[in-house]
């Protein structure tokens, strides 16, 4: 019920429009069920929230078993941010370094957006949100984004921040960590008067603060917990774990949680998480959560999602659960209690109060739009999971692949098709579309790229793990994997068509790696947003961030030509007689594609596609097109395909304009 329906744009009959097929229910054979003391009941439990997983590409909602319930891809990536769900679960506030926006989960669209913030929170009645922006806290109406007021706040620039309302909505607690070092600063804000008091003025001492549903304040300091009366500014009780060392203050992780009934509290130190029972006023125990890789390097963020009508959920006689993964976002779930923060690439569920690991599942990355891949002979097309074959009567569906694709590639003779789903690579017989017996190759990490070199018995795979890209060469007959290259700190990579080069996006520009020699071939200092190789790999088209398209020699980096796609009038604010966009507006540029024959380059500019001559950079033709996510030429170069924003595929026959010229012909 939460999945927003995507309305397909009506298109002329001359366009081939393929609706993106609904994904089949995923399989969960990899789930590990460990050490259960009581049997599991998979009966539907109404009113149980979902787990929301936020990545750069979008928002996913999953149940406790990791089953995908709903997905919301983003048009623009969200970096270094966070999220907060409304109490009713119908809204999700998302913030990153580019902007802050409100996502309507029922309609699947953005309600409003504003400038970036450091932290945010919903009020208990969900009528307003508080945003920490610069040196003020801004209050906005939750559904419309209209300003409701603001108060000055001593924010420390660059610090990580967290904020929460009191149950009555009249107070906020704001915690900052960092700048300098890992020092923690806490302030209490009166919503109506704007009065701010630091924790030192109230006589409290803690590293993290939480409000109970009854309005009591809990101060956490790793292995110590204090119950506070915030109104009277006094300590009610103090609890210590058996691991507390007098006079020693342990480093405390920046996340904590309290259950909806106010009974259980979770706190973190640098190596353990601690569970407290406020009713019994004692420390229940701790569990070690340190993994092989540092958890803070994960780019995933996890929080509670909305409440669905009916989903399978786990219940037990004890009823308590803890979820552990590496964004360290702590929360409690109602129904059976669930506590958690999420990991490098997995979610682990622990029972409480026993603190016993019972379930583990992998958190997959997902591609923000379905991939579109032509076969080398041009008679077959893979779009998303769907497989299409060209026949005399037109394109006909052959079937569907079992899973969604992160990356995919045909062998150069078209006999094999390899695709990556999560961390596995499968190799299929592309002539009969049957799975080969030696097809499943396991990679411990997210597979972001695939390519078959000229020798079809080899497959080159790019694997991302912990901000390191590793490139493997695999003999598909014997499943022998050989590490060719390791690139630390890589942000994005793309293979050339024949697998001779790997393009890497760096902070300073573009770097090309020679895969046969396993060494750096070329480094260019430029800010770019997209690139494309020609079929022979001798040339590279680079679309720069300033609206310039450059053609380069891949072996030498020598510039062949340069063409400014964005007119200078946009920079100066002056309009020519024919008119131009208003000052400060910039046309949407990209994606781009290079024809395999190396003769043409396709580039989207606003609501049209430009066809440029690859030798001179001159525009040969232009035709109207909707906003696209990707572009790709057919192997012969006579057809151009693109993925639209509504996840449908459009294919143009370019022969009419290639025969008669841009002034007379139109694509079909």
Please name the defining characteristics of this protein.
2% helix, Methylamine Dehydrogenase, Chain H, 668 residues, five-stranded antiparallel sheet, 3 helices, six-stranded mixed sheet, 47% strand
What does this structure look like?
The protein is mainly β. Among the domains are: 163 residues, Methylamine Dehydrogenase, Chain H (7 Propeller), CATH 2.130.10.10; 124 residues, Methylamine Dehydrogenase, Chain H (7 Propeller). Helix content is 2%, strand content 47%. It has 3 helices and 59 strands. Strands 2-31-30-27-29-28 form a 6-stranded mixed beta sheet, with no helix packed on it. Strands 36, 37, 38, 39 and 40 form a 5-stranded antiparallel beta sheet that branches. Strands 1-59-58-57 form a 4-stranded antiparallel beta sheet, with no helix packed on it. A hairpin with a 5-residue loop joins strand 45 and strand 46. The longest helix is centred in the C-terminal third of the chain and has 6 residues. The two termini are 38 Å apart. The N terminus is likely disordered.
């Amino acid at each position: 019920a939460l999945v927003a329906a995507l309305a397909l744009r009506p298109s002329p009959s001359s366009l081939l429009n393929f609706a993106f097929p609904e994904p089949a229910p995923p399989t969960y054979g990899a789930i590990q069920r460990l050490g259960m003391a009581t049997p599991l009941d998979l009966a539907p439990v109404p009113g149980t929230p979902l787990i929301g997983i936020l990545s750069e590409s979008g928002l996913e909602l999953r149940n406790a078993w990791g089953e995908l319930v709903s997905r919301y891809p983003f048009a623009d990536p969200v970096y270094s941010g966070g999220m907060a769900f409304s109490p009713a679960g119908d809204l999700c506030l998302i913030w990153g370094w580019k902007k802050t926006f409100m996502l309507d989960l029922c309609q699947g669209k953005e309600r409003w957006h504003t400038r970036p913030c450091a932290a945010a929170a919903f009020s208990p009645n969900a009528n307003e949100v508080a945003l920490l922006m610069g040196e003020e806290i801004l209050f906005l109406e939750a559904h419309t984004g209209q300003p409701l007021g603001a108060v000055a706040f001593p924010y420390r620039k660059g610090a990580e921040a967290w904020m929460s309302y009191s149950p009555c909505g009249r107070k906020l607690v704001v915690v900052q960590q960092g700048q300098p070092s890992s020092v923690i600063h806490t302030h209490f804000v009166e919503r109506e008067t704007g009065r701010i008091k630091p924790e030192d003025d109230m006589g409290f001492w803690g590293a993290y603060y939480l409000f109970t549903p009854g309005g009591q304040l809990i101060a956490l300091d790793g292995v110590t917990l204090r119950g506070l009366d915030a109104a009277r500014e006094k300590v009610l009780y103090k609890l210590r774990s058996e691991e507390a060392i007098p006079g020693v203050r342990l480093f405390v992780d920046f996340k904590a949680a309290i259950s909806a009934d106010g009974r259980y509290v979770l706190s973190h130190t640098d190596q353990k998480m601690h569970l407290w029972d406020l009713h019994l006023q004692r420390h229940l125990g701790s569990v070690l959560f340190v993994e092989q890789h540092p958890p803070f390097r994960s780019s995933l963020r996890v929080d509670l999602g909305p409440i669905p009508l009916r989903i399978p959920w786990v219940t037990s006689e004890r009823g308590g659960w803890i979820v552990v993964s590496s964004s360290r976002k702590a929360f409690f779930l109602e129904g059976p209690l669930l506590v958690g923060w999420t990991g490098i690439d997995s979610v682990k569920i622990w029972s409480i109060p026993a603190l016993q690991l019972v379930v583990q599942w992998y958190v997959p990355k997902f591609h923000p739009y379905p991939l579109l891949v032509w076969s080398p002979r041009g008679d077959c097309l893979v779009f998303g999971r769907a497989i299409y074959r060209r026949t005399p009567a037109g394109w006909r569906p052959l079937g569907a692949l079992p899973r969604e694709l992160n990356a995919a590639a045909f062998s150069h003779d078209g006999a094999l098709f390899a695709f990556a789903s999560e961390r596995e690579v499968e190799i299929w017989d592309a002539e009969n579309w049957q799975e080969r017996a030696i097809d499943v190759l396991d990679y411990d990490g997210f597979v972001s790229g695939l390519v078959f070199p000229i020798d079809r018995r080899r497959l080159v795979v790019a694997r991302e793990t912990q901000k390191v890209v590793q490139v493997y060469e695999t003999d598909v007959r014997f499943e022998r994997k050989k590490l060719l290259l390791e690139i630390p700190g890589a942000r994005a990579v793309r293979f050339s068509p024949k697998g001779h080069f790997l393009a890497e996006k760096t902070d300073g520009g573009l770097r090309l790696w020679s895969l046969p020699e396993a060494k750096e071939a070329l480094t260019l200092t430029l800010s770019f947003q997209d690139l494309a190789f020609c079929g022979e790999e001798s040339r590279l088209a680079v679309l720069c961030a300033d609206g310039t398209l450059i053609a380069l020699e891949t072996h030498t980096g020598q510039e062949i030509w340069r063409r400014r796609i964005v007119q200078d009038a946009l920079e100066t604010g002056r309009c020519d007689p024919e008119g131009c966009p208003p000052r400060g507006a910039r046309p949407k540029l990209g994606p781009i594609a290079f024809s395999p024959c190396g003769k043409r380059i396709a580039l989207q500019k606003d609501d049209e596609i430009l066809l440029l001559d690859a030798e001179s950079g001159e525009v040969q033709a232009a035709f109207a097109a909707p906003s696209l996510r990707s572009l790709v030429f057919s192997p012969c170069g006579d057809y151009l395909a693109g993925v639209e924003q509504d996840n449908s595929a459009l294919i143009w026959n370019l022969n009419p304009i290639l025969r008669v010229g841009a002034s007379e012909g139109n694509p079909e």
